[in-house]
Amino acid sequence: MALLLAAVIALIPLAIAPGRLFYFDVTPKVVLLLWGTAAAAVWWTAAGRAAGFYRASRAARWFVLALCGMAVSLAVSTLASVNPALSLGGSSWRYWGLLTQLAALAFAYLVAACCAGQPGRLRVVLRGVAASGLIVAAYGIAQYFGWDPLLDARGYHVGEGIWAIMRPPSTLGHADYSANWLLFVVFAGAALAVSEEQTPWKWLARIAVTAGAVAIVLSGTRAATIGLASGAVLLWRAGNPARSRLSGGHKYVALSLAIAAVSTVFYVSPAGEKLRARVHWMLEEPAGGARLLLWRDTLRIAGARWPAGYGPETFIAGFALHQSADLGRAYPDFYHESPHNIYLDTLVAQGVAGPVLLLALAASGFAAAIVSRRSVRPNPSAGALAAGLAAMTIGEQFTSFTLPTALAYYAVIALLVSLGVPSALPPWPVGRRWPRVAVALICAGVWVISGIRLWIAENALAAVRRDLDAGLVGEAANQYAKYEHWRWPGASADLWYSRRLAQIAGSNADPLVRVQAFQQAGAAAQSATQTTEAAFNAYYNLAAFYARKNDFMHTEESLRAAISFAPNWFKTHWMLAQVLQAASRLKEAEMEAALAVELDGGKHPEVTGTLDRIRATLRAASIEPAHK
């Protein structure tokens, strides 16, 4: 069982399928979690292990209560959601809806119960984390130095010239998520290094710690780097057995000085050019970009639905409706998919219960670490895992959970709670296992079927993209119908499908293909207004479709609908001003253009130019003699 859990937690961050699945860095991870949790739940309940885990320690009791409370809160917030279907399945960028979150909570419980009072099992899980983390870290380091056999490097390069930066995502989709997951690797590796009895695994742990720390720094992620430094200081200051076995006394000081010297040489060398560029970007926005305004607006909108929240995965639409003009002016080209803070994310999704329960989960982990350190035979892993939990908590204050980072956070808490159980737990009596097995089978059936549906749908959507790239619009339509049949409830790819078809319709393809693509693009654009998590974006796309048909009435209707969902987005006001100008409604056009200029914050000269042209037309009209 421990080997199965270790395999799942090791494979999830590694799972990517470029070309095979549409969201190739998200979907395989979700499917692995669903299937892995299903298998582990049935196995665990059938074996009847860990009777009385709830009563094994105070930390275990609080951990189980917090998990159950989080599950109930998620279910309530999904039922009360502004978009229940979206909250059930999740958004396409992370699939972090009710279905996936319940699987992650169940997986965390299984890790804690399996490892409770069993140091050998805990080491098996830590070995999986270290092995996986070494691969993830090595890939991220290779990406920094320009070698990437799987992904297009242009996707994680930003800027040009000497200030061009590289944010290597490794296999996690984005540098922020990769760095925050590697925090788990670094401190889980440290825990393994001080508790492992076999030399090869001990060396693997040490290498994983080193590679993970290097990859975090090269990712250019400020929050994770601060978390790494804070966790290292906490581990050293704690004075636990890990201190003497990892470094100790003057050796620790000497090692620190050596690391500082090597880091300095690397930073000023040609190889450190992209890291220096990243530091330059950081100094230009010391407050973390839009985060302060984003957090302020998030707190303001969360107050409107504090009892149960807006529902999981509904942030994009809800925030766009209430985003302040200040944030719009400061960052007009952004729309925000999350508040970039785990506690604010759960506050918006679940109401006040979300962050309280998340804090309770973390508190159960820290409490278990304290108990373990004060016991007669303290486990040397406790200090390193507690430092890791602190580091991850710091890092996650500047980003939101994705499946790998959330699972790592829950797992480190589960491992700490397992350390608070002094001895192995007895099995359940045979006659009392079957009700639990029945519940596990039902849940496993839901997770397995959901994983199959998601895999088939994403595979079909990847085929759609390949067909469209080849200009096979008819074949793409057949594959898209298959995707629609199998996809999860909630968000769909209608918006992407419409825009991709519109590109073909405006290309130099065969005229019959262009006509076919244009017709299908219109149908997908209409459907997207009901299926995308960003309705304002869908209506803006629909307006562009009607504008190509010179259908000014429906263009205006679509733009006004988009404005109703995102009133402080400059693009819709700017496009509406041009539509009104074409209809000779110059006064209305001037008002919309002036509002677009205000919300744009002077970032785009073409927006100001539209207002200037409209006003020039108005002035010319006012001095022309009246026609007789």
Quick rundown:
The chain has helices at residues 2-14, 27-47, 58-79, 84-89, 98-115, 119-144, 175-195, 199-218, 222-238, 241-246, 249-268, 273-284, 291-302, 315-322, 325-330, 342-350, 353-374, 381-395, 403-419, 434-469, 473-486, 494-505, 511-531, 535-548, 552-565, 570-582, 586-600, 605-623; strands spanning 157-158, 165-166. It is mostly helical. The chain has two domains: 2-437, no CATH class; 569-621, no CATH class.
From the structure above, extract its key features.
2 strands, 628 residues, 71% helix, globular, mainly alpha
Overview of the molecule:
The protein has 628 residues and is mostly helical. It folds into 2 domains: 2-437, no CATH class; 569-621, no CATH class. It has 28 helices and 2 strands. The protein has a two-stranded antiparallel sheet with strand order 1-2. Helix 7 runs parallel beside helix 19 and helix 9 packs antiparallel against helix 18 (381-395). The chain is globular. The chain starts with a helix and ends in a 5-residue tail after the last helix. The model is unreliable at 240-249 (pLDDT under 50).
Q: Secondary-structure map with pairings?
A:
Layout lengths: L1 H13 L12 H21 L10 H22 L4 H6 L8 H18 L3 H26 L12 E2 L6 E2 L8 H21 L3 H20 L3 H17 L2 H6 L2 H20 L4 H12 L6 H12 L12 H8 L2 H6 L11 H9 L2 H22 L6 H15 L7 H17 L14 H36 L3 H14 L7 H12 L5 H21 L3 H14 L3 H14 L4 H13 L3 H15 L4 H19 L5
Antiparallel strand pairs: 1-2
Helix pairs in contact: 1-2, 1-6, 2-5, 2-20, 3-5, 3-17, 5-19, 6-7, 6-8, 7-8, 7-9, 7-18, 7-19, 9-18, 16-17, 17-18, 17-19, 18-19, 20-21, 22-23, 22-24, 23-24, 24-25, 25-26, 26-27, 26-28, 27-28
